[in-house]
Amino acid sequence: MSKYLAETRGDLDASICLYEKNMLLSESFYVSLQTLEVCLRNKLDAAMSQTYGADWLMNSHAAPLSDFSRRLVNEAMPNIGSELSHGKLVAEAKFAFWVGLVSKGYDQSLWRAACYKAFLAEGGKKRSMVHGRLNSIRRFRNRIAHHEPIFHKDIERQHAEIIEAIQWMCRGTAAWAQHHSRTLIVLNSS
């Protein structure tokens, strides 16, 4: 509670209220973050499959993945169990894996060959812009997942950036996420 107490100058009642507000704000991001993650992995998987084949994720020789990316894939496999499939591996791979596929290290390879195709809904985006946005969202998502405070963040801007990132991949999905998101309602409720 130290961060909440510091924010409220030691007022315990106010800090508990702020903690509850933070909890509700964190919860409200579920729809937009889930939609972004699912859209990102599906769009990137489709682009990679088109270029490197449908088994690009399970075949270690299909796509030029770095050792770090390959390690993330290998770490996901035991979590699936005995019925390993491409689709299950796509779903099990960490968000960091998918964000990593658009990182600077892949600019000359994966981005130019395949990954750029996932971001054509708005006419295409620069790799550095896509990675910067997704990595920022990843860090924000991790704050929420680790029960860290987000009350001090610009919640409206953060929400808008998530919706916009979805829109880079699919306008319809972004509209759906915007419609179902409760973030702005929660933000404006107190």
At a glance:
The chain has eleven helices and no strands.
Question: Can you offer a commentary on this structure?
Answer:
With 190 residues, the protein is mostly helical. It has one domain. It is 66% helix and 0% strand. It has helices at 2-7, 12-28, 30-52, 67-76, 86-92, 95-100, 107-113, 127-145, 155-169, 171-180, 183-187. The longest helix has 23 residues, at 30-52. The chain is elongated.
How would a crystallographer describe the biggest sheet? none
Overall number of structural domains: 1
Shape: elongated
Strand content: under 5%
Structure annotation, total helices: 11
* Average pLDDT level: 96
Uncertain segments: none
| Total number of strands | 0
Determine the structural class based on helices, strands and strand pairing. Answer: mainly alpha
Helical percent range?
55-70%
N- and C-termini, Cα separation: 20 Å
Order of helix and strand elements from N to C terminus: HHHHHHHHHHH
Using the CA coordinates, give the radius of gyration: 19 Å
How are the SSEs placed, and which strands pair?
Elements: H1 2-7, H2 12-28, H3 30-52, H4 67-76, H5 86-92, H6 95-100, H7 107-113, H8 127-145, H9 155-169, H10 171-180, H11 183-187
Helix pairs in contact: 3-9, 3-10, 8-9, 9-10
Provide the descriptors you would attach to this structure in a database record:
mainly alpha; 11 helices; 190 residues; elongated
